[in-house]
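My main concern about presentation is that the manuscript never shows what a single data entry looks like. Each protein is reduced to its one-letter sequence and a matching series of backbone shape codes. For the editor and my fellow referees, an illustration may be useful. For illustration, here is how one protein appears when written out as sequence plus structure tokens:
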Amino acid sequence: MSYTFIRYILITLCCIGTLNAQTKIQGIAIDTLYKNILRSASVSIYEKGKESVEKVTLTDAYGKFVVNDLAANKPYLLELRYQGFQKVLQEFMLSKNEEKDFGKIHMAFVENQLEEVEVIPPVRMNGDTLEFNADAFQLDSNAVVEDLLRKLPGVVVWGDGSLTYNGREIPNVLVNGKEFFGSDKAIVLQNLSKDAVKKLQVYDKRNEKEKKENPHDVKYEMNVALKKGKENMYFGNASIGLGTTKRYQQHANFNLAKNKSQFTLGYSGNNSNKNLQNMDQLLRNTSFKGVGINADFDSDFLSTGINNQHVLGSRYQYDIIGTNEVNRKHNIIGNVLSRWDNIRTESHSTTTLLSEEHNNNTRTNNNQNENHRQNQQMDLRYTNTGGKIKERQNSFTANINAYHQKNQDESDDITQYNYEGNHAENTANNNSNNQIRRLNFSSKLDVYGVNSSPNMRMTSKGDKSFWQLITYGVLINSDISQQNNRNERKSTYINYDNDSLNRNDHRFYDNKLDQQTHDIQLTANYNDWRITQKISYYHTNTDNDVKNLIGNQFEQNTDLSHISTFNRVQYMPTIHYSKNIGYTNMDGRYSNSTNLNMSLGSRFHNEKNSSSLDYRNLEQHFGTFIPKIGINNYYTKNGKYYMSSALNFEYDEEYPNLDRLRPIYDNSHVAFRYFGAEHLNKTSRSRITLSNNYNEQRQHGYSGSVSLGLTLYKNGLTDSIVYVPGQQQNYVTQIKDLMKLYYFSGNLDKSYLIGKNQTLNMQFRGNLNWGNKFQYMDQEKQEMLHNAQNIELESYYTLVDRYQIGWTNGWNRYSRYNKLGNSNNDYVSNYWSSGLSMSYSLTNRWQINSNATSRLSTSGTYKDHALIWNANTSYRMMKGNNLEVKLAAYDLLQENKGLYMLNGLTEFTQGYRNNLTQYFMLSLSYFPRKFGF
């Protein structure tokens, strides 16, 4: 299996470069009169006789332009535009693999610039912002922003939905300088009509200090500027579907933008394991364009049980100042979401203990569960990036989040033990009602030095005092929660080897937990220095009231009932220093920059638990020195590629917690007991990492990264397991031996232009972890050497507006063995998943989608394989393609059997869970939309 996967990778990488014949044109734009080079001149390529532009670019800092991947034997027209100069037109035709150099192209100055001002080129530089003129690209009347992006130079819309410009990711897309009905860029790209767009802007969102320290480490953001009057709009979706085996789905959303406001109302209901988390997810998966092969709101055939879910949500955004500036935000955003989940699960499993002495020990478990859960969540966010305190600008954000959950759970559980010296059965029935209330508040205030702002900081003193140049920051976070858990538990334990261990328990648990977390961090920045002071406070009040029902009388369980108060205070002062220690710039050739980053900090940790259970009274005090140092190098070969490297080291310590040192034992779980440890020291952790990133600075270039790391643990914690008659006992042991964890990760992305309107995206991801971990089995020390590999390969072929294929492959392997001797605890497991997805538009109204996922799991003699094949076809009606009818079929081969396996440190489990099986569904959807009213 692994050989086939590796062979596929090698063949693909070796052969993919032959997909497209390479052609190229280049030239240099200069001023005819003064012979000056013309930077950022607009270069457009038209097919002769056509008005729509085929390729566009800009001249670089030296007046040079390069255009690749033009079709051979086709007549083209080259057009150069620069404000204040006459446009230049030249005809040309290329043969296969031809590279044509136009040399110096002279552009003449004109005195009357009226005509030049009226004609907006397809692409231009406006200051530091790259702008694309949307009207220069002709598309279908129903086209959306994503269709437009596929026409733009340097921009790649990847098969997985990500967006890049010249190999750099664009994670955020704004509309008129603000979020567009949420934070997901797919909501913009797949809903907003192309005809409503005036221009697209791509810019570096970093502040001036960051740009100065590393000019080439660009962090792109995109803004969609709308045509006048188009900012008032509405769009949405309403859908209902009925299926076999009593399956149903229904969802709707309506989105309205008017003046300074945005409003969203959404609903979803289904009993087909479609799990909706938020309104962004709903809008992303019910877009006008159609989600294609990237749906993440679809029936989940891997989840346990059947979920009947209903979700109702709303979002409101108000832009207080109404500006379209991307760096100036003053708004209020509110979200409300309510979820109702009813989940029924069943599971049956067999677990085998992995030990030489106990390899015939097994236990079986049968469980049935009904869960009814309600969640209500509200959050409110205020942002103002342009406030002012006297002569200082400031940026302020505040968030309030309120959360309420009610959870009712009823379960029946039977566990049978077939252990040496322990043949027993435990039956348990649980009926619980839980409530959680939570309120969170966070705020951040940055007060900038005089004449500084969020995007520019003064570093030279001039006539300003030292104190006037300091930037101050305050970060506050407070979280308050209340939990009330009530549980009735009936359990019966029968030991067939020793009748004296038999017992019946009927208990009522009434547990109350109040928690508070408060953090405050103060920051002062001056040039290369930053000082932070952070104080964290954590407080809990626990009131656990447990009663045993004996006959008809309730008796207090003094082992489990307790009232406790826990307090923890941490103080962390840190000083940071960053400095550019080397910069070289060879005009037109390369630039090289090296930065040093250091921080020296401390953590003072104090905690105390006061409890009515004497053994839980505990006080701990720790102090830790936390140093960090890193060196970053940035290298750019102008017009070719960008590369960054980083070497970092950090040291920290982990502290033992209360429940490891003083665990509470509930003796209704007779066959298992966790003892923890009487005394534990802190664990030291040292980590060193080396990483490298590479990006070709062109539209269809290579990009990749490699990262190496080593983490060392001293005085690490590990498990010690002892099997005694009638019980498995778990202890925590501190190991003085050094534990080492190595890791390697890498990725490689490449986009290919196969032909006109055809692209192929390849994405490779891989990581490797290996190291040692100690454990004890019946007081025998084991040093387990383990390694894990994960490889993912994704490929996406796209024929614009017609065809899209995605092929995703994933392989996970885990192995371990006992270095200190033979052990039945050694094993190797593999998990392989391969999925093929297809979306084909037969016409601009009729679409066919299909996806098939093959899963193979192996571990020792265990093997499970399943092929899940789903398909659907949809047809759009009405003039604007607003009405859709869809027929979907799920698990056509009926192979989802619910089998699973779990590899633990000391045991192996295989079993069955109930899950979703084959069904068919017919649905009808309507997409109301209007831009400009």
Summary: The radius of gyration is 32 Å. Helices lie at 2-15, 114-118, 145-149, 185-189, 208-213, 279-285, 658-661.
